[in-house]
Amino acid sequence: MAIILKEAKQNEIELIWKMQVEGFTDLLEKYQDYDMSPATESLERITEKFHQPWTTYYFITVENATGNNQYVGVVRVINKEDGSRKRISPLWIMPAYRNKGYAQQAMLELEKIYGSKHWSLDTILQEKGNLHLYEKMGYIKTGKIEHINDRMDIVFYEKN
After folding, report:
1. What are phi and psi of 49, to 5 degrees?
2. Is the separation of the CB atoms in 126 and 132 below 8 Å?
3. DSSP H stretches of helix in the chain
4. CA distances in angstroms from 56 to 34, 42, 61, 65, 93, listed in the order given
5. pLDDT digits over 128-159, tens only?
6. What residues have CB less than 8 Å from 14, skipping those under 6 apart?
7. Neighbours of 6 (CB within 10 A)
């Protein structure tokens, strides 16, 4: 099933926040990264990010059985257009829709919009499924790893 990216609007900021909290709660519980988990980010912080001129949030949608678009995830793109790398931060698929290829399709759609080169992202080193996805999409580890706590490290990727 093909996904469609739908640019989020001002009146959908609270929905983004609620989806982000729900989408990252399982990782928060697993890694207990209370200082940096997207699940602990405030509505005010999401609103600040939404209004950054270089930030665009997209809902990842699929057509459901009734022909309506169902929101299955969200992705935030940072594109400062200053020569720096475009950045995915964060991308998440809601728990009920995971492992169906939606994240990969969303990344391909983003490349249609922004081009396929000069991207960066980071992810949890211990989440092997994420590593597999990003490497399959052509991202290469930069060598930078940030130790967060005894359970979790962040690994950084780039795509040229």
Report:
1. -60, -45
2. no
3. 13-31, 43-50, 102-114, 128-136
4. 25, 18, 16, 28, 17
5. 999 999 999 999 999 999 999 999 999 999 99
6. 43
7. 15
Q: Residue 66 corresponds to which tokens in the numbers above?
A: 């009734």
Q: CB of 127 within 8 A of CB of 145?
A: no
Structure tokens belonging to residue 124: 């949890």
pTM above 0.90, yes or no: yes
- Using alpha carbons, select from 149, 138, 142, 147 the residue that is nearest to residue 107: 138
Distance in angstroms (rounded) separating the CA atoms of residues 133 and 20:
20
Distance between first and last Cα of the chain = 28
User: Mind listing the pLDDT tens digit for each residue in 70-115?
Assistant: 999 999 999 999 999 999 999 999 999 999 999 999 999 999 999 9
Residue 62 exposure: Cα atoms within 13 Å on the Cβ side:
17
Whole-angstrom distance, CA of residue 31 vs CA of residue 147: 12
Asked whether the beta carbons of 47 and 9 are under 8 A apart, the reply is no
pLDDT of residue 67: 85
Backbone angles phi, psi at 93, to 5 degrees: -115, 135
